[in-house]
Amino acid sequence: MAAQLLQGQPVADQIRAELAQELARFKQAYGVTPRIAIVQVGDDPAATAYVKRIGKAFATAEMVSSLHQLPADIPEADFKAAIAGLNEDSGVHGVIVQMPLPAHLNQDMVTSILSPAKDVDGIHPYNAGMLALGRPTFIPATPLGGMEILKRSGFELKGKEAVIIGRSNIVGKPMFFLLLQEHATVTVCHSRTRNLPDVARRADILVAAIGKPKMITADFVKPGAVVVDFGINVVDGKVVGDVDFEAVKEIAGAITPVPGGTGPTTNAMLLRNTFEAAKRQVAKP
Ligand code: NAP
């Protein structure tokens, strides 16, 4: 039997509709429109396409985005000055730095110089630490969106065995803390995990955040498992996930497609996080 398809768009639409109501009240009360600043260094085509999609999502939601495109060879001091300017600009509520970055800009430096209050993709060590402690914070938009798909589809997570393949700071690790908060029993796998298909087959909820096209074949999946695919890989001009969708949908109980699964919810969560940042900055008690 084919798996239930977990489409991200209806979930994203629902989140947008919830935001729209609250946003109208916020604008009326404070006369402020939430704004995100997107910092792009260089002109990587995939990053440019993604940045355009963010811009469109913000415009559709009647929120504002501004693109700060910096040259690929920008000296570190100038990059830091650009971020400091956005940190200090009271008209900017959220800041994201588009990856990948040129090699001379150290990732740890970049995450650390963002204002934690404007770090709407949850990459600053303060926000990552708060998530680890289970305290309210900004959480990376992609795993947060994946959780919304799981929760709004009505899956019970409590006591379930979850296996995440991938341990990046932006997807795999935050997903670990989010599933743990929902009382799942969570295992995180990576490139050195032994007997990966055996570990994966334990999962009631299997999460792929690897960056390897179609790596998760039917051998990795317990019959009836819920499969969340965060992978975005371009193969022969087509976007495919980390999961071999055609094979896995025959054995899984439910699965997010790529495209159309976790992609749409990422942008919706970025909207929600930016609105939240604006509320914290503007509507202070
Ligand atoms: P990443 O930083 O490259 O991390 C990949 C992870 O996969 C690492 O932990 C790595 O292990 C692990 N891995 C690699 N090869 C493996 C293998 N053969 N077996 C087991 N584990 C393996 O990637 P990321 O930023 O998390 O992104 C993951 C995927 O999600 C990519 O396709 C990316 O495009 C996509 N993504 C999607 C969204 C979205 O909006 N849906 C947002 C961000 C990213 P080690 O740690 O041992 O190296």
3D structure, described in words:
Helix content is 42%, strand content 16%. The protein has 285 residues and is of the alpha/beta class. The protein has a 6-stranded parallel beta sheet. A 3-stranded parallel beta sheet has the order 3-2-4, with helices on both faces. It has a two-stranded antiparallel ribbon with strand order 9-10. Helix 1 (8-30) runs parallel beside helix 10 (262-282), helix 6 packs parallel to helix 7 and helix 6 packs across helix 10 (262-282). The longest helix has 23 residues, at 8-30. The radius of gyration is 19 Å and the shape is globular. Residues 142, 165-168, 170-172, 189-193, 196, 209-212, 230-233, 242, 262-263, 266 line the site of NADP nicotinamide-adenine-dinucleotide phosphate.
Q: Helix segment count?
A: 10
Residues in helices, as a percent range = 40-55%
Bound molecules: NADP nicotinamide-adenine-dinucleotide phosphate
* C-alpha Rg (nearest Å): 19 Å
Describe the sheet with the most strands.
6 strands, parallel
What structural category arises from helix and sheet content? alpha/beta
User: Secondary-structure element sequence?
Assistant: EHEHEHEHHHEHEHEEEEHEH
Arithmetic mean of pLDDT: 97
Molecular shape: globular
Detail the poorly predicted runs: none
Question: Termini separation (Å)?
Answer: 53 Å
Portion of residues in beta strands equals: 15-25%
Strand order of the largest sheet: 1-11-8-7-5-6
The number of distinct β-strands equals 11
